[in-house]
Amino acid sequence: MPMLPPIKLQLSREELEFGPHAHAQHTITETFPMHTHDFYEIFLVMNGKAIHRVNNQTQLMEKGSLVFMRPADIHYYVPINKYDLGILNVGLPEMDLLPVLDYLDIPLSRITDPPLPVHLSISGSSYDFLTDKLTRLAQIFPSKMCRPLLRSFLCELYSPLILQKESEQAAEIVPPWLSELDQQMNDPDHFIQGVSWIYSFCPYSQEHVIRSFRRFFHMTPTEYVNSKRLAYACELLLQKKHSVTEICYMSGFNNLSHFYHVFRDTYQCTPRDFVNRPL
Q1: CA 90 – CA 95 distance, rounded (Å)
Q2: Degrees, nearest 5: CA angle 248-216-269
Q3: How do residues 141-189 score in pLDDT, each as one tens digit?
Q4: 203 and 262, same structural domain?
Q5: What's the number of domains the chain is made of?
Q6: For the chain, how many helices (H) and strands (E)?
Q7: At what angle do helices 146-170 and 94-104 cross, to 10 degrees?
């Protein structure tokens, strides 16, 4: 059966008149199937986990995920095992977005150019503030107070893009050898070899390397390698071309039991549950 074209969503007359409407969707069943829209959208994950299928690729969503959607993006959500997903989202036309970006000195290209929507993770007081404001916006719609309320915190919704830029600039304080190592470890041939490759690459003692990882990456070299391997394993699982056992060894884990253990600790489900989730 041929795949149906995506639904195209448009802002309602009330949203154009009163201002954007924040939607609280407490389960994946409340979200739209594959769709696109003629407006920009921001969504914040309140709870749960899910796969975000967007532009034929995948992003892992969990509490604190803040995503900046573009009008042309095609997306929908897929559950992971026993997990569901609760989100708050708000759509806004370009005419409401551009003044905010100009004020924050954020070029529109920062949102539009990446192949996937920008996906950040927020927590703490920033998460609490945005959750509170978006919930309030959802509660009062439709009202003449919607647009003023949105304008009062719209900069807070987009300011994490500034923090992302600042964090990228702050990466300059990381020692050049560690920055180069981090780049090299994007290559599966390197992280599959594990910490032995790290120590052979670095011109310093193991003790110095471990201290540097804890200081700048807030994890040990082993935890760092496992995070790379698990992300790669998830990509392979989503492709559904290999068995779980094959993926275990393809991603650098030499013990199937250990692979299951670290996978469950990270994603709260087994690799088999992850790959067999309903589509």
Answers
A1: 15
A2: 30
A3: 888 888 878 877 887 888 777 766 544 433 345 677 887 888 788 888 9
A4: yes
A5: 2
A6: 13, 9
A7: 40
pTM here is 0.59
pLDDT score recorded for residue 274: 76
Least confident residue range of 28-32, 43-47, 154-158, 191-195: 154-158
Q: Which of 157, 21, 51, 40 is nearest to 93 (CA)?
A: 40
35 in the Ramachandran plot: left (φ > 0), alpha (ψ -120 to 50) or beta? beta
Q: Which of 140, 170, 200 is at the close of a domain?
A: 170
Q: What are phi and psi of 104, to 5 degrees?
A: -85, 0
**In a shared domain, residues 162 and 192:** no
- The answer as to whether 107 is a domain residue is yes
Is the pLDDT confidence value at 268 over 80?
A: no
Q: Give domain status of residue 1, yes or no.
A: no
Based on the fold, state whether residues 101 and 40 are members of the same structural domain. Answer: yes
Range of the domain at 268: 174-275
DSSP code string of 251-273: TT-S-HHHHHHHHHHHHSS-HHH
Q: Are residues 24 and 159 in the same domain?
A: yes
